[in-house]
Amino acid sequence: MGVPSILALCATVASATAIQIPILASDNQAPIQAETGHPHGSKPLVNSTEIQDLISGDRLQRRAKQLFEIAKLGEAEYNHPTRVIGSAGHAGTLDYIYETILQLGDYYDISNQSFPAVSGNVFESRLVLGQDVPKSAAPMGLTPPTKDKQPVHGDLVLVKNEGCQTTDFPETVAGNIAFIKRGVCPFGTKSENAGRAGAVAAVVYNYEKDGVQGTLGTPSSFHVATFGLSGEEADPIIKKLEKGKSVDGIAYIDAEVKQILTVNIVAQTTEGDPNNVVMLGAHSDSVAEGPGINDDGSGTISLLEVATQLTKFNVSNAVRFAWWAGEEEGLLGSDYYVAQLPEEENQKIRLFMDYDMMASPNFAYQIYNATNAANPNGSEELRDLYIDWYEEQGLNYTFIPFDGRSDYDGFIRNGIPGGGIATGAEGIKTKKEQEQFGGKAGDWYDNCYHQLCDDLGNVNETAWIVNTKLIAHSIATYARSFKGFPERTLSVSSNAYSENVKYHGSRLFI
Ligand SMILES: *[C@@H]1O[C@H](CO)[C@@H](O)[C@H](O)[C@H]1NC(C)=O
Ligand SMILES: *[C@@H]1O[C@H](CO)[C@@H](O)[C@H](O)[C@H]1NC(C)=O
Ligand SMILES: *[C@@H]1O[C@H](CO)[C@@H](O)[C@H](O)[C@H]1NC(C)=O
Ligand SMILES: *[C@@H]1O[C@H](CO)[C@@H](O)[C@H](O)[C@H]1NC(C)=O
Ligand SMILES: *[C@@H]1O[C@H](CO)[C@@H](O)[C@H](O)[C@H]1NC(C)=O
Ligand SMILES: *[C@@H]1O[C@H](CO)[C@@H](O)[C@H](O)[C@H]1NC(C)=O
Ligand SMILES: *[C@@H]1O[C@H](CO)[C@@H](O)[C@H](O)[C@H]1NC(C)=O
Ligand SMILES: [Zn+2]
Fold it and tell me: DSSP secondary-structure letter at 31?
């Protein structure tokens, strides 16, 4: 399919709305609503224990089933369920979130924030180097296709240094395939330099043994079709090239990069102090490869469920829920949101809590190791709230790096304290973690991470309930009071944070 115009996109959204209503109506169970226990005007102040007690696995699972039905709307275009931005599955997800909050009446003010996003889709790809088809070859996110979406041939040409300067590219790159070492500058810069030098494709090889799952980031008209390659498979080729031997290659990528509009949905309590906002978020989109029930259907649903139960209580501080779009394309929605905040509005947000992947099947209870030394003041108090809660429940937890892999990134960079919890993606569970959490050492925390099998079978309900209760606790605590929590300071962030950051979203960019 060609690049859809914005009008065509609106048509997609409208038709998804039309399809989605019968799906939810045909669900023979009644719509999920909160029973209202207190008459209007006499709600008790939110209480952590009480709101935690309202979290149930059945309700989470019922919503997961609804979300999976919505992901199937993506089948017409993608041949499998998906909720990737621009798809009917994502449009259906947005409608579902919006409708769920709307049903809660005047407890929340809801707003849509529309923003432009680039959406990349690789339909097919192949790389042949000499006689070999390297196993680790992976097209970069947001890569353009090869010329006319056809295979291109050329000699591999070793680029000097890391290919961050145009002068690193020998003239012989023109009409051939640039072979570039990872490091120093973003993959997008290397691809752009290769394109300017006239390369027909580029391969970025790792300085480590492993493969590279990268993204080119913001599209440029100079980008060429670009693959990542493991250091292990690059090694013999580099040796040949360095000896002056020639190695030829065939590169093929059928892909499209399109500009679309997508939407962040934000809901804030009408009660509570709007100058001291408790903010939290999950992302509404999945990757193109699958339905994203754990990533981040789980967080999306946890937030919907806690937002629903919160309506039985009153709050002292306003609570603002966000469902971000375009997280998988590089944190687009949350970045856009924070960038649009005037300083005065930025100052009202006391903290941001990120809830991405709450129910990994081979889970660990992970807490982002957000410290005040490297992050805005208050991040560590939030981290300690999570620690205290797991300890009170008699549960184990681990720390994971706070390194830019999810939607907290824009907040931290703009001076807003942040943190969050997760249950693990493509990392490998250790022996020790098997003792701490059960499950299976040596396997990924989420074996279906960013794949088609991230479906209804890909959640651990125990972990999901535990973490949804913790989300409820985090909201209840700060919605009652910010006593003892650091005041906001100006929106300048510490550089200690950016020094540690290699990610911007799930894919490496450098
Ligand atoms: C919530 O509490 C505030 C004061 O803290 C009060 O003015 C308001 O009426 C309460 N609202 C409800 C719905 O209980
Ligand atoms: C919250 O509710 C629990 C159970 O009803 C009660 O024991 C506790 O004292 C309440 N906490 C506060 C701070 O009011
Ligand atoms: C906001 O977006 C949702 C999801 O796309 C849609 O259902 C709703 O109609 C929109 N509301 C407004 C006021 O634009
Ligand atoms: C947490 O981060 C701090 C620095 O900000 C570091 O000193 C500490 O070792 C980290 N802890 C773990 C368990 O990673
Ligand atoms: C916590 O981890 C220890 C091993 O470090 C294990 O013996 C214990 O059973 C774990 N606790 C729970 C609640 O799983
Ligand atoms: C969830 O994890 C717990 C603890 O590891 C395990 O006992 C349980 O069987 C798991 N549930 C599912 C559905 O995998
Ligand atoms: C962080 O907040 C604490 C408590 O409000 C305060 O004592 C401390 O001075 C603050 N630190 C910085 C670096 O602003
Ligand atoms: Zn995610």
Answer: P
